[in-house]
Protein: Dehydrogenase
Organism: Curtobacterium luteum
Amino acid sequence: MTGRAPDARDRLGVGLVSVGWMGRLHSRAYRALPDHFPELGVHPRLVVAADPVEAARDQAVDRLGYERAVADHREVIADPEVDVVSICSPNFLHREVAVAAAEAGKPFWIEKPMGRDASDSRQIHDAVRSAGIVTSVGFNYRHAPAIQRARELVRGGRLGRITNVRGSLLADYSADPAAPLTWRFERERAGSGVLGDLLSHGLDLAQYVVGRIASVTALAETVIATRPRPGQGIIDRTAAATGEHGPVENEDYAALLFRFDDGAVGTMDSSRVMRGPHAEYALEVYGTRGSVRWDFQRLNELEVFLDGQEVDGYATHFVAPGDGEFARFQPGAGTAMGYDDLKTIEAAQFVASVLRGEQLAPSVADGLSAASIVEAAEASLRDGAWHDVARVDGALTYPAATPAL
């Protein structure tokens, strides 16, 4: 795979596609690298950002520090000063932008879902394999130190034989039926609903901590059937809506049963319209000698039960130096890391991958693997049967040990 030679004076040129919340977060993560990961020897240079909205382009320059901003993402990819590309655009642009970046030989960091569906994701994956570049997919929850600790316990055999896994990704970001009918609710532009938007995170976590998911069956429901159409040109879910309603074309809620390659079983459900939870993204792993439980809303805690421990029931492990990359951000247990820190770790893995020419960050193969589970789940929604998950060839990183940076 292609990469750049590390150099303490190196100014890695960054191009950004889409200046929304996630684009701003990518930008802050790049800027944080010299502080938290100084050994990389890189001071990212924010070269150019693309967004069709003029106000967003102004923000890219005035607030985020990009040298310039353009309306067309193709200018970002074609710019000879851009070494890497961050793709934070809506789902329906992911395939076009990612394939173009791959064909231009430019490593990219893309948000999930990687494509609107498995077909988009396969095209991205195949373009990357042909180009021989490194990439990163935005599976940021992998990087929580508590998840790193859980993975060590599971993969090290401390929980014994894994018997079952439970996951939930429950949110309320679309719970208001008066919220506008943005692109997120359209099959053509978003693909699936919570299957791709939220469950892709949970499925990647389950595979990262436990192992490959081999087969799945699913059910789904659209709870809010129609929504008011947005004003002209508006795509953000916070925008004002008109009075006319249109149909919601993808699912608000989904639930999966699945089996792992090693015979363990799992359940996972997700909602974007749940009343109560805001971002309850949880993973529980149970084995013959113990179990672990984690919830993103308590990011820095891991509940642990191991046979033979003194505490009768779960002990709360507060993440500390020695767990994942925690020590780069906080000096001791009890002082919390945050969501933005997870994206900084993600940026570091991506940049390290580029510098070394080695796939360290979550790869497009990992993105395709999650999309393939969603594909099997959607087949199950059509016929009610169990479906095998297609195997993915390529640079899968979830079976490997956590990379040392």
In short: The longest strand covers residues 162-171.
